[in-house]
Amino acid sequence: TLAKLLFNELCAEFEYTCFVPGFMLKGDYQELERGVYSLMHHHGTQIAGTGKNKKWKSTALRMKTLLLVLDDIDNDNHIELLQNISSVNDCTNSRYIVTSRDRDILNSSGARVFDVKLLNQKSSKELFMSYAFPYPTQPSPSLTEWVDKIVVKCDGLPLTLEVMGKYLQRKVSESIWKQCLDALDEADNVIRLDERLWAKLRVSYDRLGSQEKEIFLDAASFFNNSRWSLREAKSSWRVLYGLEDLRWQTLVDMSLVYDVDEKDRIQMHEQLRSLGIRLASGWGTCGRCRTWTKKNVPSRFNSSNFDESISERQIYSSESGPCTSSTGMETHIEEVLALRLEDSMSLNSRDICQMKKLQYLDSKELMLDEVGGKLPKNVTLLRLRGEVNNLHDLVDRGLARSLAVLDLTGLDFKLTCFPTTVSDFQNLEVMKFTSCHFEGLPEAFGQLPRLRHLTFTTCQRLRSLPEDFGLLS
User: Could you give the percent of the chain with pLDDT greater than 70?
Assistant: First the structure.
């Protein structure tokens, strides 16, 4: 983004620097503050919340030169955070840069406001051509007129120009260019600016194959900037969709996601992530919400977000019926594909049993013996945290066929044995143990044909590995 470019050019001039992208500006004030200080750097080295600097305090900023960039602020908490940091810092040579799509927010910050102009026709065409026809290629005479028409419809928006250019790269058929122009024409009928931008970006999404669409939606609504790495996402996609490397590369080539290393977290442009979240919530399709988190679980099942005026229009059962959610779209629990279950959410094990299509489950304090042996059989990624009281029949519950990623973190101290039927996890590629109390691992551990990544972190009771461990190929 332009904000990141400006940050990179200026950061060498300041003692402390901090760049906070839009997707990190979420949550209440305390979450925002923790997030910002966790990203603070001192002369290029990250300092907050790690190692010996866990007790680092914001007062260390006092009278130090600070460059702070908050990219895409949109509420009063962001303004309060900015003002508090500048007050603590209290250094005239510091610089605070914020971006927003809401002028009222910028005005309320007391900052000097600069309007970032859209690209003119010449610059727009140069940017589009750099993606659609990388040097030294040139468009054929029959495509020249289509280039100008497409560029005009991109409205000088760099992201739209890049995504459309990447999609049309090496497309020589005039009919494909015409179809793109028609789709962009249709998007012009949308009134709101954000909606119009998403509609134009969706032109590229709509031309993906069905499996690539699923991966894009998974990436945007569940994996993007989460604790999960691209490697772990791909392990799940291998089971669900197949050809995961090829399908991911298609998204990279079309600029729908960033090209990251497999050990890193999935990243994408904030506008594309917003598009993916909207699509995953059924936007414009009368579809159903596929990802439930603390922030978007329907209000009937989240008392902190309850809205009496819409509760009567929501569905929470396996029964079919013409009911709609707060966004005007049907919400059936059995359609949920991804669930990030926190202890403040009022879902229970019976509710999870109804999620017949569930693929990703990140759960805190799940009582497996309450589930009644009916955990969804399609789960490919499972993370269990905190008070989980039973693992011995995890395989018998039907997960063995699909599970590709298993992460066990801080489980109940009474859980000292791992299931002896672990060898039934024939698709398991990634396994993590963090702060677990297992005293040993079953011999069958050596019979996991696909296991590639195994991590132990602070598992102090585990003294040895099984003899068959060397059989892992």
Answer: 80
Question: Would residue 335 count as lying in a domain?
Answer: no
At 14-27, the pLDDT tens digits run 999 999 887 778 77
Does 331 fall in a domain? no
Confidence of residue 46 (pLDDT cuts 50, 70, 90): confident
- CA dist 19 and 348 (Å) reads 38
Q: Does residue 342 form part of some domain?
A: no
Q: Given 205, 229, 258, which residue is the final one in a domain? A: 205
77 and 181 share a domain?
Answer: no
Residue 340 backbone dihedrals phi, psi, to 5 degrees: -110, 100
Same domain flag for 188 and 226: no
* pLDDT computed for residue 394 by the predictor: 59
Question: Into how many domains does the chain fold?
Answer: 4
Name the one residue in this structure whose structure tokens are 């790495």. Answer: 229
How many CA within 13 A on the CB side of residue 436?
A: 26
Quote the crossing angle between the two packed helices 158-168 and 141-153, to the nearest 10°: 150
**Same-domain check for residues 177 and 95:** no
| pLDDT tens, position by position, 351-395 | 777 788 889 988 876 655 444 446 778 889 988 876 665 565 555
Burial class (CB in 10 A: 0-12, 13-18, 19+), 363: buried
Give me the sheet containing 16-20, strands edge to edge.
45-46, 41-42, 16-20, 66-71, 95-99
- Residue with the two structure tokens 């007050």: 87
Residue 258 belongs to domain spanning: 214-269
**Which of these ranges, 289-293, 296-300, 450-454, has the smallest mean pLDDT?**
296-300
Our separate counts of H helices and E strands in the chain read 15, 12
Domain boundary among 75, 108, 141: 108
pLDDT recorded at residue 43: 86
Which of 182-186, 242-246, 279-283 comes out lowest in average pLDDT?
279-283
CATH classification at residue 433: 3.80.10.10
pLDDT the model gives residue 413: 61
Nearest to 401 by CA among 460, 438, 359: 359
Highest mean pLDDT among 79-93, 237-251, 275-289, 393-407: 237-251
DSSP character for 387? -
Cα angle 452, 454, 459; round to 5: 175
Nearest to 101 by CA among 10, 165, 17, 193: 193
Token couple for 74 = 């949109």
Q: Give a yes or no: residue 290 inside a domain.
A: no
Half-sphere exposure at residue 312, Cβ-oriented, CA atoms within 13 angstroms: 2
